[in-house]
Design a protein that fits this description.
The complex is a heterodimer of chains A (416) and B (115). By secondary structure, chain A is mainly alpha-helical. Chain A is 69% helix and 0% strand. Chain B is an alpha+beta fold and 115 residues long. Chain B has one domain (2-109): 2-Layer Sandwich (Alpha-Beta Plaits), CATH 3.30.70. A four-stranded antiparallel beta sheet of chain B has the order 2-5-1-6. In chain B, strand 3 and strand 4 form a beta hairpin. The longest helix of chain B has 21 residues, at 20-40. The chains are: A mainly alpha (416), B alpha+beta (115). Chain A binds chain B through residues 1, 4-6, 8, 11-14, 16-17, 41-42, 44-45, 47-49, 51-55, 137-142, and chain B through 13-14, 17-24, 26-28, 30-32, 34-36, 39, 48.
Chain lengths: 416, 115
């Protein structure tokens, strides 16, 4: 029997989870989050049991109706517990209940949830875990696996996030006016962090990594659908994610080993995403105001444009990095500038930049500093110095795939 | 052909902490199994059971409501299938999707009384 495939969209449950949670939070408020999460979980268990015998014609509608009924049960239960009468069959609550489950209102509720997850009163690390749980419908185990952390750690972060939300009595809304830009900035940062967790992860299973990148992109698209959060910056971040994601398949070989930009099979880069990215960038540059995402996207686009590594327009990339550094003067950007200067043959300038800061400034990415210096010595044909640098890098590298990459590089130098 | 009851015992889904994605995948497996059995014409009937449990026991008919959480072998449902023998019924039970969650299938032949 070949036609036994269940006719359900991939991740339907996961996406519906986020929708239902957001809609119910809008009714009951963030302080009831735990009860709401349990209720939504129950609804899915019910669906899982019932749908075994056959999928309903409109699965999403089924789930929403179940969630709505569950909401009514909850309202009764909560009003009984709190010994006050919440009238659910008349007046404003009834109207709200009906409207809350409209598609447009659910989207609005999900945006509120994103802003709550990224509220400054939450610890930044908790924000990522909380966003993946409440908006993206990951379990703590799945988050732990994706972020290469322990389940316990994630559970603690989730508890802490819920506590912060309850104790700061956060409002469930999209910030307005003067608050909006800074709050939106943080949302974009968190989405980019989630994306990068997937893109740079040392996690072996490519599926998990694609999941994280896909989620970040999906949430970014949600922001683009709302007139308040659809800004040039949001478009630029989305474009940037498209450009990076387009290279995802080319970045790893069959054994999940990292292939550097120079040696990637560029035919594996995914064209349709580049097109979507380009469309996003057209909207991103309309206002003429550029953010770091704009420059990062421009750099990624330059790489995508080059048919071979040798054809890369390094002077254009150099130019973008300089502008990026002006907006974001970090050591990491300096490191990139140094690398680009090597490609341009400006070896001494490159060295001077590297010597202007300390590897420790790069924190957990310090190994990249030694890797860059190794590259410098190689270009100067100073093999033994290059090997020493790679040894330093190998001492510091944590990510398994990166480690293997460095080891192989070391191997190839010592035998050549 | 004889009738066999396949009785499914496992921890409750509630206490497994499954993610929405995992639940969707699990439902798909159940659906596939169900479809296959239907196509083979082996299922006679079956039901899934609610978790709420009440025991009545002893000569005094003591009634107790029991929690489902933490119970390793909670009966979650059953199918009655038609099979040649126990071996055949075991083959059918291979498709049960929850072995990886620590689930167990108990297979019992339905007794037939000659009148």
């Amino acid at each position: 029997m070949s036609e036994t495939k269940v006719p359900l969209v991939d991740h339907l449950f996961r996406h519906q989870y986020g929708k239902m949670l957001a809609a119910l939070t809008r009714i009951f408020g963030p302080s009831k989050l735990e009860i709401i999460e349990d209720a939504v979980q129950d609804t899915f268990i019910k669906a899982m049991m019932t749908w075994r015998e056959g999928i309903p014609p409109n699965p999403e509608g089924w789930l929403m109706t179940a969630a709505k009924n569950r909401a009514i049960d909850l309202l009764r239960k909560l009003s009984a517990e709190e010994k006050r009468a919440l009238k659910i069959d008349s007046g404003t609550t009834a109207i709200a209940l009906g409207e809350v489950f409209l598609e447009s209102e659910i989207e609005d509720a999900q945006l509120r949830m994103i802003f709550m997850a990224c509220h400054p009163s939450l610890n930044p690390r908790d924000q990522i875990a909380f966003a993946l749980k409440t908006i993206s419908g990951f379990s703590s185990k799945e988050i732990a696996s994706a972020l290469l952390l322990k389940d316990e750690t994630i559970k603690k972060r989730l508890v802490r996030a819920r506590k912060s939300i309850a104790s700061s009595d956060l409002e469930f809304k999209i910030p307005q006016g003067a608050d909006l830009p800074s709050r939106l900035n943080r949302v974009l940062e968190v989405l980019y962090l989630i994306f990068n967790e997937g893109f740079h992860s040392g996690k072996k299973e490519i599926l998990v990594r694609k999941d994280l990148c896909g989620e970040a992109m999906r949430l970014c698209q949600m922001l683009l659908k709302n007139s308040f959060t659809e800004t040039p910056k949001t478009h630029a971040l989305f474009g940037l994610m498209c450009f990076h994601a387009a290279r995802m398949e080319g970045k790893l070989n069959e054994e999940n080993e990292i292939i550097d930009l120079k040696n990637q099979d560029r035919s594996k880069w995914f064209g349709p995403l580049v097109i979507i990215g380009n469309q996003a960038m057209i909207k991103a540059v309309e206002s003429g105001e550029y953010s770091t995402y704009h420059y990062e996207a421009a750099i990624a686009a330059e790489h995508l444009k080059a048919k071979t590594f040798e054809e890369t327009d390094w002077s254009q990339i150099h130019n973008y990095y300089q502008q990026l550094y002006e907006l974001q003067p970090t050591e990491f950007n300096l490191l990139n500038i140094a690398f680009v200067k090597m490609q341009l043959g400006k070896l001494e300038e490159s060295k001077a930049i590297l010597e202007s800061f300390h590897p420790k400034d790069l924190e957990q990415r310090a190994y990249l500093y030694h890797g860059a210096f190794a590259e410098y010595h190689l270009l100067k044909n100073e093999k033994s110095k290059a090997l020493n640098c790679l040894d330093e890098a190998l001492k510091l590298v944590k990510n398994e795939a990166e480690k293997r990459y460095l080891e192989e590089k070391r191997e190839s130098i010592s035998i050549s | 052909m004889k009738d066999f009851m396949l009785i499914f015992m496992s921890q409750s889904y509630e206490s497994q902490g499954l993610s929405p994605d995992e639940m969707q995948a699990r439902m798909g497996k159940w659906f596939t199994w169900q479809q296959k059995m239907a196509a083979d014409g082996v299922v006679k009937n079956g039901n899934a059971l609610h978790e709420q449990r009440r025991h009545i026991s002893g000569p005094d008919r003591v009634v107790s409501d029991l929690a489902a959480t933490g119970v390793k072998e909670l009966v979650g449902g059953y199918y009655v299938v038609t099979a040649r023998d126990l071996e055949h019924a075991s083959e059918i039970a291979q498709g049960y999707p929850d072995y990886d969650l620590g689930g167990t299938v108990e297979i019992r032949e339905v007794m037939v009384f000659d009148n």
